[in-house]
Write the structure tokens for this entry.
Amino acid sequence: MIRNEQYHQFLRQCGLKVTSTRLLVLDVLMSSSTALSHGDILGKTRGSRLDKVTLYRTLDTFIRHGIVHKVASEDRNWLYALHPIDRNNSVVRGDHAHFICDHCERIYCLPLQTRNSMPAPESEEGFIVRAHEFRLHGICPQCH
């Protein structure tokens, strides 16, 4: 995980200008082990001058630059989570699963140990697969 003093360098590595808003949102996302809603992030930045629209724009920028991905919660709200970061502070955009706790409904990103062998639709059928999602349900360690 990146430390606070490395946030500036990380944003630059991702091709982004460093702003106080981006640093703030990055810190909130880095500090969470679960995917967060827009409201969760806004709540964790209470006391700052961050408004709803600026947060949406910042999250969209992070998504476009591959830093963050979004996943739909069970009630169809968008939640945001960082892609994993390696030892060199680079974003790792690989396959991962979303674990949804059936008790607390938190969503965790989990690495996949092996590539899924599920067949993709044939390209001659006209399908173009841009992404896929693995969702796992169960009880998280905090609720167990």
About this structure: The chain is about 25% helix and 20% strand. The longest helix spans residues 52-64. The domain at 4-138 is CATH 1.10.10.10 (Arc Repressor Mutant, subunit A).
